[in-house]
Amino acid sequence: MVSRTVLRVGLIGCGEAAQSKIAGDMVSITTEPQTLCASPDVDVVFVINSDEYHVDHAILALENNKFVFVEKPLALNVRDIKRIKSAERNSNCKVSFVPTIERRIDIQTDRSQDIIGPNSAFVSQSGTFPKRFTDISPEDIEDKTTRATEFVRQALESECGVPITKSSTTMWRILGGLGSHDLSAMREALGMPNKVLGANLGYPFWKWVNIETLADIVSSNNHKSIVCFSNIPALR
């Protein structure tokens, strides 16, 4: 009989999605990520807090030689991806990133049952009754906002040469968040693309066309082209 190793998991962050999918009985609680990452009672660290802290906390876990699971986005710019890769090279452990582990079995049937929208669309159906907290200090809110502004400036202005506007910022954050699931779903369901036929930026991005229209477009391009729809009323 093969023996099984029980891994001791530390969670950094516990929002609605984490409460409904991951969190169980708490053994101990701390407000300091350093304490959690340095704990000898933790083997694996799940970084599932707000986007602005993913990079620093992933690096902190690697520096403490802990395996790390990072919720999307892993980072919001190339500079910070390089920081994580550097920390990984100097660590005894590795990073896993949520979109890389979505596929569980070989796909036999392609069928769309629902469209992923805001977290509330599926969290409210989970039956786990997660709690929302608002007791956040003004200092923490300011720190989060400052980090977000700097990350977007680095990504759009410094790395992509794109002007920072409300629209470009929103779409960049969506692409790094739920957008990663859309790209993963298209890749797994339709195959790797060889070109992009067109894209239309808009919000909300989960409005869609009827399946017959989508099937016609996909079949006419041999399942190898990405077609992005946005702001198209649902025809169900």
What would you note in describing this structure?
GO terms for molecular function: nucleotide binding; oxidoreductase activity. Pfam families: GFO_IDH_MocA (PF01408). InterPro entries: Gfo/Idh/MocA-like_OxRdtase_N, Gfo/Idh/MocA_oxidoreduct, NAD(P)-bd_dom_sf. This protein folds into two domains: 93 residues, 3-Layer(aba) Sandwich (Rossmann fold); 109 residues, no CATH class. The longest helix has 23 residues. Helix 3 runs parallel beside helix 4. 40% of the residues lie in helices and 9% in strands. The strands form two sheets. It has a four-stranded parallel sheet with strand order 1-2-3-4. It has a two-stranded parallel sheet with strand order 5-6. The C terminus is likely disordered. The termini are far apart.
